Amino acid sequence: SLRAERSTSDIYGVRYKPSSNHNFELSYGAGQVKKSGSLTNESDITKRDVWTLGYGFDNPRFEYRTKLEFRKEKGNENLEQWVTTNRIKTTQTGAWSWMGQFDYAKTTGTREDETLTDFTEAAIGFAYRPINHDKFNLFGKITYISGLDPEDQFNKSSSDYSRLDEDDYEQRSMVYSLEGVYELSPKLEVAFKGAHRKGELRYRGEKEWFSSGASLYAGRLNYKLNKYWQAQIEYRTLSVDTADDRKSGWVTSIYRNLGAHGKIGVGYNWTDYNDDLTRLNYTSKGWFVNLVGKW
Question: What letter does residue 76 receive in the DSSP assignment?
């Protein structure tokens, strides 16, 4: 049986903004993960250190963010991981915005100096908000993913690194998605989402790849209760090519606005899958909390 883990960490950092357009960030975090029930057994304690360096630039038409992290873990096994995240956003006209993303992570085992896994995610997307027809918003994105997500690579103690979980899979996939929202009235909005994934998956530790084609379609109604609160009901359908499987169900939620650029909500997913084909899982049934940002 698996034992629960307790984690503690301390983070120290500094931010420096030499001008209104530039900002720098430097931080260090130290922590440990201890298996519950273990008091003095050093083999059940994993120590973690994280160093982070970041830079950002922004002006009214262009934004850029980059971050480099080095993570080190000492336990039954020793792990090292490099992670870089990069974001670009540009506004060409009043209606169009474009974004770019590039993330890379590599995890090695220092015991044998072997590459355990690596990860690449690159994306380009757009947002269309017509100035003269502001009731309609359209968003699109193309994403390429290869490898195992860095959080899945590292968010276990090293003694559990070889354990396979349901969502611990590597992939090499292209995901295409399109979303739209239209305001029918001051209180009622209708929204849609369509996404398709083409590529291959394999569970960590396995050699054989298998097709990962999947399609997701969803329709949603948003009802504004007042200027702060919004209720949502969504019906979604997932089709998986390999299994020739088709699932459908409802998602209900309620959100509270956090100003002009975000909202937080709680809801219930009556299906067992999520709506993100880049990280699809079948353990999503039940209550959830969601934080949404707008760009």
Answer: S
CA dihedral sign of residues 16, 20, 22, 25: positive
User: Distance between CA 136 and CA 189 in Å, rounded?
Assistant: 10
Whether the Cβ atoms of residue 158 and residue 190 lie closer than 8 Å to each other: no
Which sign, positive or negative, has the C-alpha torsion 252, 257, 261, 264? negative
Buried b (16+ CB within 10 A) or exposed e, 21-41: eebebebebeebbbbeeeeee
How far, in Å, CA of 99 to CA of 136, rounded?
A: 19
Alpha-carbon distance 61 to 76, whole Å? 49
pLDDT confidence tier of residue 1, bands split at 50, 70 and 90: very low
**How far apart are the C-alpha atoms of 64 and 107, rounded to whole Å?**
26
Summarize the confidence of residues 133-146 as an average pLDDT.
93
Q: How far is CA 70 from CA 32, 104, 134, 220, 248, in A?
A: 16, 12, 43, 41, 41
Q: Is the pLDDT of residue 131 over 50?
A: yes
The residues that bridge with 252 in the sheet, in sequence order, are 233, 268
Whether residue 169 is predicted with pLDDT greater than 70 in this model: the reply is yes
Identify which of 175, 6, 163, 155 has the alpha carbon closest to the alpha carbon of residue 83. 155
For residue 176, is pLDDT > 90?
A: yes
Residues 13, 11: Cα–Cα separation, whole Å: 7
Separation of alpha carbons 120 and 199, rounded Å: 14
For the cut 80, the answer to whether the pLDDT of residue 110 exceeds it is no
Residue with tokens 């999947």: 214
